[in-house]
Amino acid sequence: LTENRMYQQNEKSPLQVFVRAKKKINDIYGEIEEYVHETTQFINALHSDAEIVDKAERELFESYVYKVAAIREVLQRDHMKVAFFGRTSNGKSSVINAMLREKILPSGIGHTTNCFCQVEGNDGGEAYLMKEGSDEKLNVVNIKQLANALCQEKLSESSLVRIFWPRERCSLLRDDVVFVDSPGVDVSANLDDWIDNHCLNADVFVLVLNAESTMTRAEKQFFHTVSQKLSKPNIFILNNRWDASANEPEFQESVKSQHTERCIDFLTKELKVSNEKEAAERVFFVSARETLQARLEEAKGNPPHLGAIADGFQIRYFEFQDFERKFEECISQSAVKTKFQQHSSRGKSVSGDMRSMLDNIYERITIFRNLKQDQKNLLTERIQGTETQMMQVTREMKMKIHNMVEEVEEKVSKALNE
Ligand code: GTP
Ligand code: MG
């Protein structure tokens, strides 16, 4: 039943836009690779038989083969990446756990996360972690062991630990979302390194704030630097620990509108990364701890409100789900654009280059043939036969390439439009 529900949720998820686009562009590149291989064989044959294609040209063509293979490799690894930042103990790790519906990352009071932790899906069904600079797989059975493994090592705060978690345990991981957890922005002096090493290819950033206090200078400064280095980053703001507001219901509305106004001003007037309308859709009031508890109850077959920590659970729970939906729409659109647009235009330029190269060869063969026609009496019948055969092969190949280029261009732009 759970499998089935996850499948249905999956089908409706906006993340499917990315998943389908990725499949499509991988298929298109698979075809391009086939064409490139066929054409290479043809060019190599021409090179050895007739000296129509010289060495430089043959090498140039080989470079297309490598280019296409390199793009294919990147494409297969492409994913959607979301990075979480905020002050120590605001609940970054708890938000990720709530989204993953399982307590994967260590969370707790005080300074818990001491280096970058990336959670990504693994096909093999086993959980393990890998430290930066090593490809040793360290098996992880449970959260305690993971926390110990992360604490024991003297890891630098900017280093990265990759946690591979079985895809089938979470639909977000199955759909190729990769989560990056960070230490608090207040504990590091190397924020620039952080951005250069971990943020440049992030599709979405989530600023996790503590709703009990207000946004700090360190948090603001970090995002100022991010938006200088990246053009218009997608930033969501979560006012976490909103369950605390239930203790002071008389101030709840005024605090909420004060936070909302500050967050919107920050995105629009300070960072200038969103307009008013978009910014209003990027600010949420949630409780990560409560959401995770609710989801753990749900997984046991209990009603989610058993996980409630305070009054107003339902509203906070809906708001968390609303955040997730908007986040999914945003990340999948952004990743399709930034990741696949580039590959599509590279694919177009490679197929265009190949086309003009083959046009050139075709022209040369025509000249070569006319020349030979003039010296017909000197040629044996066998050579003529070979030439005609060659002409025919070239013509067929040219047609094939023409068709291929058109087909690929059509597919690429159709995929892009979609
Ligand atoms: P560092 O890794 O140290 O930077 O902290 P973090 O931002 O990852 O915070 P973490 O998720 O470890 O949470 C810190 C503490 O706050 C934990 O004890 C959580 O259980 C608690 N916590 C997180 N979110 C909430 C929430 O929404 N409400 C309440 N009441 N507690 C929360
Ligand atoms: Mg943490």
UniProtKB/TrEMBL annotation:
The keyword Nucleotide-binding applies. The gene is LOC115629790. Residues 76-324 form the Dynamin-type G domain. It comes from Drosophila lebanonensis. Keywords: Coiled coil, GTP-binding, Hydrolase, Membrane, Mitochondrion, Mitochondrion outer membrane, Nucleotide-binding, Transmembrane, Transmembrane helix, Ubl conjugation. This is Transmembrane GTPase Marf isoform X2. GO terms for cellular component: mitochondrial outer membrane. It catalyses: GTP + H2O = GDP + phosphate + H(+). One of its GO terms (biological process) is mitochondrial fusion. It is a multi-pass membrane protein. The keyword Transmembrane helix applies. Residues 376-418 form a coiled coil. It is found in: Mitochondrion outer membrane. It comes from the Eukaryota. GO terms for molecular function: GTP binding; GTPase activity.
